[in-house]
Design brief:
The protein is an alpha/beta fold and 383 residues long. 37% of the residues lie in helices and 26% in strands. Strand 7, helix 1 and strand 8 form a beta-alpha-beta unit. Helix 6 runs antiparallel to helix 7 and helix 7 packs parallel to helix 13. The radius of gyration is 30 Å and the shape is globular. The chain starts with a strand and ends with a helix.
């Protein structure tokens, strides 16, 4: 009589093959993985009773499982941040970071944003539906709300969040700081870095390509164009005549759009004097304001910066007010920087690109023409 025993795994060999370096640092290619190879040898025992036993080796089964290994990234503060797996509960502390996440198709992992995060429109919808929470503004982060969301990653920016670094650590939050962009290359680097953190490197390619194509189109069209003097004001004059210095991404936008930034001799976001601006006699003025209308801005200029009415920009109807989405696009160093460049190129060189016809971009001189005439008449009568 012959009986067959069951198939029994008698040898299991596990080999660990590691592809990549000991750590994953910013700038390396690919993702470090661990491959587990399990080899199972099956043997069949054949018994011919009463005394003969035969063991026959039948086959080997090899199973291979590849998993992402912990990776280490260096953030803008020089800190090593380990990512053990793709983050699935993410809090964004800047509108530009939120835009990067959604542009990369990572919106489904976002659980918290700032009150200023309003693009793409899907963000607002998700907030209204209660699927994404707001955690205060970029400068007024509500840390209790952040902790309550139990994020596995918080994406912040050196300015304004570096001051909260110790507090983040006390609360046990894993925070990755992105650098403050100074030009389009920095923006692209941030997009690629976020893509690498989430292991979606391929998703960054079309986003970066669109930006590079916009830059190339503008540069090509401006090959022989001159550079008019440009003043960029952050808010109406009553806010203090703050502008964009030469080492800011808006400063880069102005120069790349064919303008000469009159504040380029300064760093960061300088507060300019009325005398300095008058001495530079800007030929194009761009005023960014989230909500103010043309009439309110004009009244603000008359009250707080009347010298602007004597500038070349005002006399030639080259003073523009950008609001709403146009303002957001220019003010955020994110995936829409290419579109922001094209918009500023229209404002600075309408003879090449044509003036924009957007509702959120207003030619201030033309919009308040009647008010300006009335103001002049009143001044003459008073004199």
């Amino acid at each position: 009589m012959v009986s067959r025993g069951r198939l029994v795994p008698v040898a299991i060999v596990v080999a660990v093959l590691v592809a990549g370096l000991a750590g994953f640092l910013v700038g390396t290619q690919g993702v470090r993985t661990v491959t587990l190879t399990e080899t199972i040898t099956l043997r069949e025992t054949v018994a011919a009773l009463p005394s003969t036993v035969t063991v026959r080796e039948l086959t080997e089964i090899v199973r291979t499982v590849t998993a992402e290994a912990p990776r280490k990234f260096i953030d803008a503060l020089g800190r090593e941040v380990e990512i053990t797996s793709r983050p699935t509960r993410v809090v964004s502390l800047m509108p530009s970071i939120t835009e990067i996440l959604f542009a990369l198709g990572l919106g489904g992992y976002v659980v918290g944003v700032t009150t200023y995060c309003n693009y793409p429109p899907e963000v607002v919808e998700l907030v209204n539906q209660g699927r994404i929470a707001t955690v205060g503004g970029p400068w007024t982060v509500d840390l209790e709300k952040v902790v309550a969301l139990k994020p596995d990653l918080v994406l912040a920016m050196v300015s304004p969040h570096a001051r909260l670094k110790e507090k983040f650590e006390e609360l046990g939050l894993r925070v990755f700081f992105l650098g403050n962009a100074k030009d389009v290359n920095d923006v692209i680097a941030s997009i690629k870095l976020v893509a690498a953190i989430f292991n979606v490197v391929d998703a960054a390619e079309p986003v970066v390509k669109a930006i590079e194509e916009s830059v190339a189109r503008v540069r090509s069209a401006l090959a022989t164009a001159g550079g008019p003097r440009v003043l960029y004001l952050i808010g109406p004059p009553s806010w203090g005549l703050y502008s964009a210095g030469g080492d800011t991404f808006i400063g880069w936008l102005i120069e790349a759009a064919g303008g000469s930034n009159i504040a380029k001799i300064y760093s960061s976001w300088p507060k300019l004097s009325r005398e300095f601006i008058a001495s530079q006699d800007p030929e194009v003025v761009i005023i960014s304001s989230m909500e103010a209308n043309a009439e309110a801005i004009y009244e603000d200029i008359v009250a707080n910066f009347p010298e602007l009415l004597d500038s070349t920009a005002w006399r030639t109807s080259r003073v523009y007010l950008i609001t709403g989405e146009a303002d957001d696009m220019v003010a955020r160093p994110g995936p829409r920087i290419g579109k922001a460049l094209e918009l500023l190129a229209q404002l600075i060189h309408p003879e090449i690109f044509g003036e924009p016809t957007r509702a959120d971009v207003v030619n201030l001189v033309k919009a308040v023409g009647g008010l300006a005439s009335a103001s002049v008449s009143v001044d003459l009568v008073a004199t």
